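Quarterly update from the structural biology core.
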Amino acid sequence: MKRIIALFSVIFLCTFAASAQKFALIDWEYILKNIPAYEMTNEQLSQISQKWQNEVEAIQQEAQNMYKTYQSNLVFLSPEMKTKREEEIVKKEQEAQELKRKYFGADGELYKKRESLMKPIQDEVYNAVKEISEQKGYQLVVDRASAMSIIFASPKIDISNEVLIRLGYSK
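Predicted structure, tokenized:
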């Protein structure tokens, strides 16, 4: 009998504890798309990326032109000249790869630029979410955009518009 009472007590306490927690959702992408500074930063990064991509492609094109010239002059070249030209072509291709890695690699310039420009915006959104969560007593705020396992969520618990209002972007 004591076990049954203890079991019911545990179930009751677990049910009570679970129902006392408050949850909220945000849509990170929706919030960021409604922040003009984010859109301007994205455009700026896109322009920088395109500029750097053009630089890399120019060097790659130069290497291809060198190779075509090498192919067309192959019969006229001495073995030493062939080796020298091949080395120049390989060096130019390596230069293109190194520049690509410098700009677009894991710790490349684009990553660093994105980090320096986006982090303040993301921190501002995070702080607004944190303030709303503390004010309204939410224990958990889930990002709808990245939570693949959410099948359905009531729009009543989505606080994305509140975050935008807190940031000064009324919706």
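The helical segments are 2-20, 28-33, 36-72, 79-104, 109-136, 160-167.
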